[in-house]
Please model this.
Amino acid sequence: MNKETSPYYPPRAGWSRHLYSAAYSARRHLHLENLHLPRLAIHVSLKRAALCLLLPGYSFYDAGWRRIGLGFALGWLVAGAVFLMWLGYTAASIAFGLMMSFHVSGVLHFLNRISPSSSVLRRLALSIAVLFVVGQLIYANGLNWFQSHLFMPLEANGKIYIVNPRVRPTVLHRGDWLAFRVERTGGGAVYIRGGFVLDRVIAEPGDTVEFGSAEFSVNGESRARLPLMPTGGLLTIPEKTWLVWPSLRTVQRNNVSDDVIASTVLQMAHVGRDQMTGKPYRRWFWRKQTS
Model:
């Protein structure tokens, strides 16, 4: 049964009265009524302001310069496409810089619209601040996040590979390509510099590997010996470890025996989960990466 509101009694206050009471009390204590904020040159809603700050070129579009705004947005999209397709190459770096430039120009245009009477020094300081916030805090950090979670360019043997960092180690098998990070290995007369390596997995956890003078075998299956491999020995790959033999392009020998070098490379070839960077995509747009 619906009860009609009595004309003699006001309706009960809702639960939100506590919020209004707290806001009024804070305003009284902080004397916010005496705070005179600068008046903006244009009246803009919160939604429009967010679009002007977040979408490259929207500020020009919102100001009535629609062709310029659409041109900025189209230029940003084209630069983004070039950046993704040529990731790791010089063209991608140039495109990434253009993306930031389009975005920074739109933000500065919007800020100048709401405060057009700023001095030259103030505008210069504002430009530097916007460039830092948009370029470093947003684009640079965003790029690091994307490289850690979606794609990472890696150069190996003179070729750029795009690595998928989300690959789980449990799906890695013999013959798969694997990118991993190594610290400086060795000591004394032999050492290998740290960096990133991309090569094929030759043995999985639990596999038995036997080295010979002309070949090596994995679980009894013989294969041609790879450069810098030991000429003898038997080992079983530990758990959570994969054997990836690196293709070292530069080897300097300073009166060091091949056995010592092979032992150091073998130490480096043991790859744990914490070293893994990812697995290259089979294709990156039209480029075939692995076979």
Remarks:
- The two ends are 74 Å apart (CA to CA).
- The CA atoms of residues 27 and 34 lie 10 Å apart.
- The mean pLDDT is 85.
- The chain has seven helices and 15 strands.
